[in-house]
Design brief:
The chain has eleven helices and five strands. By secondary structure, the chain is α/β, with parallel strands linked by helices. A five-stranded parallel β-sheet has the order 2-3-4-1-5, sandwiched between helices. It binds zinc ion.
Length: 247
């Protein structure tokens, strides 16, 4: 998926590993602000690279975000921008936003003052609170997801209704997915269905939107009880049974 240079959404979540999301964000800001075709050598490009550019505020934390960490967002947005001007807030490891932090941001993220934009970076979309997630455009970096989305188990849960229990068990039997990879696949599935949900909503297809919502919920419930070492197959079988009702 390509980051938009026009009609930039008020808030987006970029999903991928820390290095890729950081580099992609820097390149994106350079594309937006550099007047020399994101040359990467002018002062604008260098300041963006060093996270010192005036129109981009970077937030990060080691543990969890506190409400104090977010003060800068409210103090900055208190000033109206000139028409044409833009300002970005980049929130690293957005999965470390506590519920209180996320709630304090909801209104701002939904309708930021003109010219302000949010970019949430995370390696685990499912760990970002749903209230934030549902207000954001989600961009999954292909470097992270290309191998996952071609994974046999991934396709089992996207191909609607076409997979018999016997076929599924056959795939599962041959599968060697470990617990950690299982979580990554579930994460990729949540992104997949989230995009389906947004598409359906845009097309006012309430039936598909509802279905996608139920599936996202089922995936989240599955994530709440992640597989124990050695129990990935059981985990997937349980999920398949739940899905059969939803597809
Ligand atoms: Zn430049």
């Amino acid at each position: 998926m390509i980051l938009p240079l026009n009609n930039i959404p008020p808030a987006l979540i970029m999903v991928g590993d820390a290095t890729s999301t950081l580099n992609t964000t820097i390149t994106y800001l350079q594309q937006l602000f550099c007047t020399r075709n994101s040359c990467s050598t002018c002062s604008t490009c260098l300041l963006i690279q060093q996270q010192q550019f005036y129109a981009a505020t970077w937030l990060s934390t080691d543990k969890h975000y506190t409400l104090d960490d977010l003060d800068v967002i409210f103090s900055t947005t208190a000033y109206a921008l000139q028409e044409q001007d833009k300002h970005f807030f980049i929130i690293n490891t957005a999965d470390l936003l506590t519920p209180a932090c996320s709630n304090s941001l909801l209104k701002m993220v939904e309708e930021p003052p003109a010219g302000y934009h949010f970019i949430f970076l995370t390696s685990r979309l499912s760990a970002v609170l749903p209230t934030i997630r549902s207000r954001c455009t989600i961009i999954t970096l292909t470097t992270t997801n290309s191998s996952l989305s071609s994974h046999a188990l991934f396709t089992c849960f996207t191909n609607q209704g076409s997979l018999s229990p016997a076929d599924f068990l056959k795939i599962l039997e041959q599968d060697t997915t470990h617990e950690r990879e299982t979580l990554l696949i579930i994460d990729a599935l949540i992104t997949y269905w989230h995009n389906k949900y947004q598409q359906a909503t845009m097309q006012s297809n309430s039936q598909e939107a509802q279905q996608a919502q139920k599936i996202i919920l089922a995936l989240q419930q599955a994530l709440a009880k992640p597989p124990m070492p050695g129990s990935s197959k059981l985990f997937w079988r349980t999920l398949y049974l739940t899905f059969n009702h939803l597809l």
